[in-house]
Amino acid sequence: MPSDVSEESARAMKSGMVAIIGRPNVGKSTLLNALLKEKIAIVSDKPQTTRTRILGVVHHPEAQIVLLDTPGLHKPQHQLNKRMVRTALETLREADMAYVVVDATAPPGAADRLVIEQVRESIAASGIPVFLLINKVDVVNKSRVLPLIESYRTMLPWAEVVPLSALTGLNVDRLLDLTVKVLPEGEPLYGEDVVTDQTMRALAADLVREKILLHTRQEVPYAVAVEIEQFVEEGKLARIAASVLVERESQKAIVIGKHGERLKEIGTEARIEMERLFGMKVFLQIWVKVREAWREDEQTLTELGY
Ligand SMILES: Nc1nc2c(ncn2[C@@H]2O[C@H](COP(=O)(O)OP(=O)(O)O)[C@@H](O)[C@H]2O)c(=O)[nH]1
Ligand SMILES: [Mg+2]
Predict the structure, then answer these.
(1) Which of 60, 73, 101, 221 has its CA 20 to 30 A from that of 252?
(2) Which tens digits make up the pLDDT trace of 52-71?
(3) Cα 24 to middle of ligand 2, angstroms
(4) Positive/negative CA dihedral, 193, 198, 202, 207
């Protein structure tokens, strides 16, 4: 009997990809950041903040969990939105398991049913385990959570149902442990220092967009895209030039604000966060440009990485 077979080597490492799926604004990106304990996905109170698939790697002692945050599933109107929905559904097909995130502050509605229908179709083919995550329980009365779970319970054969708060972190570690249990055995897919596959350019562009979303309302957040024109590292300094695309002159005026005040605030907030994230000084310049109907233009969408 060899004495060097330790308990550790007897327990195989687990590894796999988890798609985070749900309607817009339920807290998918907040959850990704909470699970990673690092902010890599932008978050706002506006729907459709996330436009691309965002990968984050959790290095758990027993598993490597590759999280795939996705744009919210919705009925798409513009070409941009069609691409976003396609991205989410493709991610669901690639994954080893899925989290379906719903919002505890509202009863299941048409938008949630649309999500669950699409997940049902997808898992009929793949058979992957799906967890129902009831998010934002920090702001609802405890007595309302159980009836909510009941109303979702029969909609899909959930592998687990977890009430949680991505904002406060309630049950977030428990979710990780439950996830490890259902992931397949396998070797890690990413190196141990990898946290995300987002490039610095992509992170910079999204941070500028996040600050615009926080400072604007109505149709403006949907009509904004950010393109990094220049990203040059000079020692501990990054020189970043960003173009903000909007669809109309009136939107440009809103983003810039009176005497350029709004754009200045947006720039300062984005720069501070970039400096923290990149660990270097940032010199950020932002221009606002009008490009009519960019959301319908296939070439522009591809150039923007959507
Ligand atoms: N109270 C509360 N708010 C949350 C929670 N998770 C997310 N939010 C808020 O919900 C909004 C949408 O979050 P986001 O992560 O962008 O949602 P996504 O569109 O599903 O990715 C933001 O204002 C978040 O701060 C939570 O657990 N509790
Ligand atoms: Mg999001």
Answers:
(1) 73
(2) 999 999 999 999 999 999 99
(3) 7
(4) negative
